[in-house]
Amino acid sequence: MKFREMDTEDIEAALETSMQEGLREDEARKRQQKQGFNELQEGEKQSALLLFFAQFKDFMVLVLLAATLISGLLGEYIDSIAIMAIILINGFLGFFQERKAEKSLDALKEMAAPQVHALRDEKWAKIPSREVVVGDVLKFTSGDRIGADLRIMESSSLEIEESALTGESVPAVKFAHPVQHDVDGIGDEQNMAFMGTMVTRGSGIGIVTATGMDTAMGKIADMLQSAEAMATPLQRRLEQLGKILIITALLLTLLVVVIGVIQGNDLYTMFLAGVSLAVAAIPEGLPAIVTVALSLGVQRMIKQKSIVRKLPAVETLGCASVICSDKTGTMTQNKMTVTHLWSGGKTWNVTGTGYVPSGSFMSDNTDVNPKQEKSLHQLLTFGMLCNNSELVDHEGQYVLDGDPTEGALLVAAMKAGLTREVLKQKFTIVKEFPFDSTRKMMSVVAKDENGKQFVVTKGAPDVLISQCETILWHGQSQSMNRDLKKAVQDAIDGLADQALRTIAVGFKPIGAATVLLDEREAEKGLTFIGMHGMIDPPRPEVHNAVKECREAGIKTVMITGDHVSTAKAIAKQLGILRGKDKVLEGKTLSDMSVGELEEVVEDVSVFARVSPEHKLKIVKALQNKGHVVAMTGDGVNDAPAIKAADIGISMGITGTDVAKEASSLILLDDNFATIKSAIKEGRNIYENIRKFIRYLLASNVGEILVMFFAMIMALPLPLVPIQILWVNLVTDGLPAMALGLDKPEGDVMKRGPRSPKEGVFARGLGWKIISRGFLIGISTLIAFIVVYKTNPDNLQYAQTVAFATLVLAQLIHVFDCRSEKSIFSRNPFGNQYLVWAVISSLALMLVVLYYPPLQTIFHTVAIQPRDWLLIVGMASIPTFLLAGSFLVSKSK
Ligand code: ATP
Fold first, then answer.
1. Is the dihedral of CA 180, 182, 188, 189 positive or negative?
2. Which residue pairs, CB below 8 angstroms and at least 24 apart, start in 54-63?
3. Atom 14 in ligand 1: which residue has the minimum CA distance?
């Protein structure tokens, strides 16, 4: 028999599980060992060996290998072995860099892996989706991605979007009862839910019938190619730039070789020098270092509680000019406590904080017994009845399981002595119409001991009031006339002005046999019972974060479903709503076109009583105004706006799977301040990449120019091939990596956001590369000429001096690269990685210069102490000449 045809007992028996208790942990572990992990098998990964060999497939490296082979055959053993060794070490370095980047991205994937709500040992717990086994009982709700194939056992207004399997984008309505008739494909299996599909409405509970490759999704898994890693805009630009640089470097190298040969150098030496120069001048390591810098940055971001799901977002973060953020939970703590209650013109205060269910009720500063105040009692009872949250006593601490808004209502009711157990004995919930942020209401149909049925609705007061025909006033039901409506409106404003979040409760009796089909039918003709007002304190760190963002040229916009006055009050406290800033309401927004919104959008800093659908309009209007928009969201309906935003941000704790999958950044702590940290890190990563691009390219320009000018001036080669390769490996490699780990400059959050259109060489980077590179080349050449002219017989000595000057000039210049301004604008030794990289490069240089066996290999001779003065002097020029001009201009 098929699962869809079976009833609950049969399924429980067949899968040896229980809807009440779930699986036992040890049983689940046993099954997991037998069934394997609940995951789809991925395609073969590139093996380590292949990745290693991939390092040598670069065209120039192959030419170099061929050249070395020839020189080996010609008897130049030492040269060819040394060059081989250098190529090999270079290959290893590239290999390790790529592995590291790959590993950290894998770890990232794991952190963002989905979780499910499973019943194990009679308790609901969140477990990683891959640990689910057949027989597990899973709970799911709107926004969740289904973790395995399930037979649905309980459902409430459940709709699931199955387009991944059926291609049908309209969500399928699901239910829990057995289906006896034949079905035609997955789309018809209405009491089954399938792995990878998305719950778009309602909620349900199901028993897992298949996992991993046995699921419907597993059967088509071969067709689902794993998505390719996305290159960031900068990586793409660098790839194009790389091509231009290769051609330029090759042309210059060719010129150097041709001139060299014309000048009388022998063809073989010039060929090897040319190839070495080309290898050194082409920044083949650049893309790898960029990837490493990005992935290390991404790891730092994890420590600061944000997960980057899409690598390009790291760069876009630095361009963000507006952050549109939800209020509840992101700017506030989402720890709600009811402090005020209102019914029929009377107000009560409630004491107590947090979720501890003890406190007293007061009216006009005198204690009251809530059981004796009929309307108050009714308000609290209904607040508890239309409510799915639970308060769990966890080792003496009260922990809320469920929505904090509902938790607040529950705790308020408990303070009045009401309990879930007693309520359950008196009332049965027949049906539920779940809350959604567009409707801003939730309802239940309840039945009392006498079989009488009634609807309880709770929701945003200004929305609920329009569904009420009558109101409970001084214990009597009265028609909702204009005066009473006005009294309610005033009461709503009164609570909201105090920054309180408000929830109203309505009620309506229905016939004992009435079956309500949809929420529209349930939520009309109600009686207004009263309101709860609850505090939700702002997160203490948000005020400063908003300020820092403002200083960084980033505007913060609050988007909330809450009442205008509540939103205004909190936005003022947080420094978001200032001066002439405007507040726009969802109602007004609905009537506006994107074009109309564009006219005003830059002046608005609070959007209140909005629905998730409005967010897309806001993103579009801001983008049309040229802004780079970061937008947060947590629900299913937020996904389109999250996708459309330049940086889509989802909530790690309260976010649904759908929102997370649409986003490029996940906030692990749901905190607004984390967005600010991520932006700061994003800016820093980009600046660091600029730093080593500048360092590497300036070094390459220097290397090429010293050879080029020497050839033009009919001088012998200032550097031998192996020295050029050494510079490429040691002097360029380590410090560039260290620059990638640099800390941000102090003013990184004091400047405006970067333009997304900005090129690689923007903000003077191109000039810095050319000017510093030119000076490095010239000073190396001068050092070479001075020594060579004094003693033309000892070419090797002059070459050694040129080598030392080039290395030193680069190692000094690297400190200048730490700042966009000048070497003097920050402590040059503030980056300890860089200090160590430079010290080790220096030490290695000294070994090459003074250790006899290496002298043979590197064609060096020991440098006399007096010549060091010349070397240090010449090597300082490129950095200090231009930095000096900075100091002069600053002092003016
Ligand atoms: P944001 O997170 O975007 O800042 P929000 O979470 O406050 O906004 P919603 O959750 O859409 O926005 O809530 C909008 C309004 O709906 C609230 O002001 C409240 O009156 C009402 N509301 C919130 N949660 C519930 C619920 N569980 N049941 C009934 N009504 C609710």
1. positive
2. 55/90, 55/91, 55/92, 55/94, 55/95, 55/98, 56/87, 56/91, 58/284, 60/246, 60/275, 60/278, 60/279, 60/282, 60/284, 61/87, 61/90, 61/279, 61/284, 63/275, 63/278
3. 561
Q: Assign 223 a pLDDT band (cuts: 50, 70, 90).
A: low
Average pLDDT over residues 4-24: 90
| Cβ–ligand 1 contact at 609 (below 6 Å) | no
Ligand 1 mean position to 440 CA, how many Å?
Answer: 6
Could you give the count of Cα atoms lying within 13 Å of 307 in the half-sphere of its Cβ?
23
Q: Alpha-carbon distance 511 to 452, whole Å?
A: 7
- C-alpha 149/C-alpha 35 separation (Å) is 14
Let me know if 393 is a catalytic residue. no
Q: Report how far residue 867's alpha carbon sits from residue 802's, in angstroms, rounded to the nearest whole number.
A: 11
CA–chain centroid gap for 398, Å, is 31
**How are beta strands 526-535 and 555-559 bridged, if at all?**
unpaired
Q: Which atom of ligand 1 is nearest to the CA of 458?
A: 29
Catalytic residue among 326, 462, 536, 634: 326
Average pLDDT over residues 536-546: 95
The amino acid occupying position 159 is E
b/e 375-402 (16+ beta carbons within 10 angstroms → b): bbbbbbbbbbbbbbbebeeeeeebebee
Per residue in 702-718, is it b (16+ CB within 10 Å) or e — as a string? bbbbbbbbbbeeebbbb
Give 112 Cα–ligand 1 centroid separation in angstroms: 26
Q: In which residue are the tokens 């906030």 written?
A: 667
* Structure token digits, residue 265: 């150098």
758 — pLDDT class (breaks 50, 70, 90): confident
> How many C-beta atoms lie closer than 10 Å to residue 659's C-beta?
27
The finding on whether 418 has its CB within 6 A of some atom of ligand 1 is: no
- Whole-prediction pTM: 0.81
Whether the CB of 440 sits within 6 Å of ligand 1 = yes
Q: Residue 228, exposed/middle/buried by CB under 10 A (0-12, 13-18, 19+)?
A: exposed
Quote the CA–CA distance of 551 and 568 in Å, as a whole number.
Answer: 22
Q: How far is the CA of 555 from the centre of ligand 1 (A)?
A: 24
Residue of 435, 559, 631, 636 to mutate, ligand 1, most atoms within 8 A of C-beta: 435
Domains defined for the chain, CATH in brackets: 3-42+108-226 (2.70.150.10), 233-302+685-891 (1.20.1110.10), 307-332+540-670 (3.40.50.1000), 338-535 (3.40.1110.10)
Ligand 1 centroid to residue 609 C-alpha, Å: 9
Q: CB atoms < 10 A from the CB of 417, how many? A: 13
